């Protein structure tokens, strides 16, 4: 004999039949209308998969599992993605480096270095050298990233390389500009301090004006010639990197130096004409 305990509510029988599909009330003391609750006592036992005695057994639900492909960690997409991320990291580092750097208005140069791009690692040069070092490191890092022949990686890699190269070239042009200013200012200082001696100790037995006697005045004029020759040599070194307006600026400075050298040579010729040539040669 089946015993039933039924609590009646305002819900109809149709609502009572759906109790299993409805969520249990969250508050036992709530005052709203509640669904019917049917407690069944029976000698029949429910088997796994049954919701009630004599109900058809439902097959167990399938559990969805994420299946990783066997070669997913070793396929071609992994190194390509790694290359893309490496390039993007370099881009971020490049943007930060360029954003926080301001080119100096002056650098310290030395005529002792034949290579005009060599800087003394001190004073105002330090931030400039550090920036060049950073950009050089980024360029090296980019060169070590394989593109795997992937079009997107190749394009992005070329964009990154071009950006870094342009930044380095811009800094080099700025350095050459400041170097030309340094050469020009040095030349002006030379002109202001150089002397044109009134006599060089020529004698009538000398072959020409280049055959200067070994005197103190001779050493002074030779030192002046040598200093101007050094300036021209450094300008020639800078000419390997100067283009466009920089090339024009370089040529203008070099022409000024050449003109001054000619004036010094003419002065020596004049002194030779006065003191070095034999009297009969001077009269002809």
Structure summarized in a few sentences:
Residues 1-57 are annotated as: Disordered. The chain has a two-stranded antiparallel ribbon.
Description:
The protein has 284 residues and is mainly alpha-helical. Among the domains are: 79-175, Methane Monooxygenase Hydroxylase, Chain G, domain 1 (Up-down Bundle), CATH 1.20.58; 194-283. It contains seven helices and two strands; from the N terminus they run βαβαααααα. Strands 1-2 form a two-stranded antiparallel sheet. Helix 2 (77-99) packs parallel to helix 4 (151-193) and helix 4 runs parallel beside helix 6 (245-276). Residues 1-42, 65-74 and 278-284 have low confidence and may be disordered.
